[in-house]
């Protein structure tokens, strides 16, 4: 997985921390975690907007 420069210095403890870090500068309107498929795969549905 390619690391983004602004995430390198951060210590991400939970998957939700990554969602929050990637949304830096955005407003998170909705965040919903769910599992999909036969393998235990955690996905995130995120709705976000740029603040005006």
């Amino acid at each position: 997985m390619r690391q983004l420069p602004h995430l390198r210095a951060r210590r991400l403890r939970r998957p939700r921390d990554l969602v929050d870090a990637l949304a830096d500068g955005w407003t998170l309107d909705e965040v919903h975690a769910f599992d999909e498929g036969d393998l235990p795969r955690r996905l995130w549905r995120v709705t976000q907007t740029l603040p005006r």
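The chain has a mean pLDDT of 83. Helices lie at 15-22.
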